[in-house]
Amino acid sequence: MNNVVEISEVSKSYEDVKALKEISFEVEKGELFGLIGPDGAGKTTLFRILTTLLVPDSGEAKVLGMDVVENYREIRPILGYMPGRFSLYQDLSVEENIRFFASVFGTTLEENYDLVKPIYQQLEPFKNRLAGALSGGMKQKLALSCALIHKPELLILDEPTTGVDAVSRKEFWEMLHLLKHQGITILASTPYMDEADQCDRVALMQNGKILKISTPDEVAQSFSSTLYGIRSKHRFQLIQVLREYQYVKSVQPFGESVHYADHRNDPDTDDILRYLSTHGVEDAEIKKIDSNIEDTFMELMQQEESHA
Amino acid sequence: MNAFKGFVKKEFKQIYRDKRTLLVLFGMPVIMMILFGFAIRNEIQSAEVAVLDLSKDSMTAELIQKIESNPSFDITHYLQAYNEVEPLFQKGNVKAVLIFENNFEQKMVRHSSAKIQMVTDATDPNLARLLQAYTSSIVQDFSDDLNPEISIEQAGLSPEIRMMYNPELRSVNLFVPGLIAVILMLISALMTSISITREKEMGNMEILLVSPLKPYQIIIGKVLPYLVLSLVNVFTILLLAIFVFEVPFEGSFILFFAESILFILTALSLGVFISAVANNQQTAMMVSLAGLLLPTVLLSGFIFPISSMPQVLQWISHIIPAKWFLEIVRSIMLKGGGISVLWFQTAILVVITLLFMGLSMKRFNVRLQ
């Protein structure tokens, strides 16, 4: 049994909103699996089903071979769950929080200190501070320590880096890699595309559906056309003008440049530049670039929307 | 078991850390007790009274002196003629005027009957009624002392009133049981419902549910600290009542505390039920205040007697736990009632408690939603 998580055809609706539409995927043992998608894609619902907090309307979900509906009692102790909202006790100190969760899961801080040490060590200077007074990144580290304290086999993290500064985000992912090397399977969601590279495999989610599951590299490379990066000082005008171009397929602003793809198999870059300069964008520079995950995701989302 | 212990420890810590709430929890009973005990009173204390003695004989003098010496009355005016009565009331200087008919003593001796007229200012009907009751009991006493044989042979019917268990009609005696009920409702039901819904609202429940803690452990862990707090408060109120307000305590302390614990459990089960239904703290608070606290104050007989309510409200009062608890506590404290007379009320509380405990256990979700 190599799959820690097995989900097949899981659907879930809230009243008239379909949150999950027949989702299927597996997470292998020891994998760091990322669920990437915008708010409202269904990530939290999926996690709540996996953590046995919600029952799917149809389909089957298994954690370590156990059904999330029937065997919820057996599943709960082996899960480490970090909900999307900071759900530690703000009026308890850092140390009290971690000791509380340790005791609730039938263990002690000392017993599993080695496991949480790399994370908890950073918090120890503030161990008497109330959790409510911690910074966003610190809170998430504390929440991770608390979710880890009972040595779970599967760690489920719902948007652990949302609302956290860039440096702390990076640190956070480094910690997840450390945990992965200790053999813990990790399933994390994030709305940030740039975090996808941190995962072994990612699933792109949108409107309750999984658009693609693959390794980050494969996802990035699966962009269907040749991609160009176009730069200009007049970025806004550039985007407007490009969207009117006869061969245009997609125009996405991306950092300082604009990612452009068109319908021709082998686009003529000179023709594009000529078109731009006749329409008032004279300083444009164009070069062929590699697609990244966001490009693929945008493309998949557009396809999905035109299907619907 | 360690998980449960850790949970209870956390609860105590959280309550202890919230100093403001703690102050309210322990301060409120004392403040309410002092308010009800000193400020809000139903009994009369030195009410201003005028006397119009048309007879001026030894017997009226004696009677007037008797009234004067009663702490409830304060004779401020001695009138000479009947036409002085009305202006005095107009000015609002006196609450009542006592008028002795002429030849009072003579009539008393000859016909063993004489008349005293009492005019009261009924703009405050409660006060007027109380003054009447007080006066007639003083006059009754007087005529009993005067000539026991005569009074027995007296023609005509005159009611002999005896106030049992609370002869001075002290309102403190009545308020203490009610106050205990209100405070227990407030702390047990309101605080538990808020504390459980807070876990839901803050998202902590998600983790608690995923933990190996069982639902009943979460509920008991939530409830236990408030049980302790409530008991401390019962104790404070009782001490204040007995030592500061000299409320009599006729019955058994053990029974009193046992019944108090039962009522606390009733309130806690209501609180847990509310939190199982409500999804956020605000709803929980509104439901507790409107659904529990108001009926406890208004419909339990704490302030307004149930017997003078419309029939519909009287029926409703039967399902209010505080009504039964009030009957129990009043009986234990003032009449020395034992379980043999209180088993019915106790049984009702037990049934209500079990009902709501069962309901909330059923409603308590092992999942979200």
From TrEMBL, chain A:
InterPro entries: AAA+_ATPase, ABC_transporter-like_ATP-bd, ABC_transporter-like_CS, P-loop_NTPase. Pfam families: ABC_tran. Keywords: ATP-binding, Nucleotide-binding. Residues 5-232 form the ABC transporter domain. SUPFAM superfamilies: P-loop containing nucleoside triphosphate hydrolases (SSF52540). GO terms for molecular function: ATP binding. This is ABC transporter ATP-binding protein. It comes from Rhodohalobacter sulfatireducens.
Automatic annotation (TrEMBL), chain B:
Keywords: Cell membrane, Membrane, Transmembrane, Transmembrane helix, Transport. Residues 139-367 form the ABC transmembrane type-2 domain. The keyword Transport applies. The keyword Iron does not apply. The chain crosses the membrane at residues 21-40, 174-196, 223-245, 251-274, 286-306, 341-361. InterPro entries: ABC-2_transporter_component (IPR051449), ABC2_TM (IPR013525), ABC2_TM_bact-type (IPR047817), ABC_2_transport (IPR000412). Its main location: membrane. It comes from the Bacteria. Pfam families: ABC2_membrane_3. PROSITE patterns: ABC_TM2. It is found in: Cell membrane. It is a multi-pass membrane protein. Belongs to the ABC-2 integral membrane protein family. PANTHER family: MEMBRANE COMPONENT OF ABC TRANSPORTER YHHJ-RELATED, MULTIDRUG ABC TRANSPORTER PERMEASE YBHS-RELATED. This is Transport permease protein. It comes from Rhodohalobacter sulfatireducens. The lineage of its organism: Bacteria, Pseudomonadati, Balneolota, Balneolia, Balneolales.
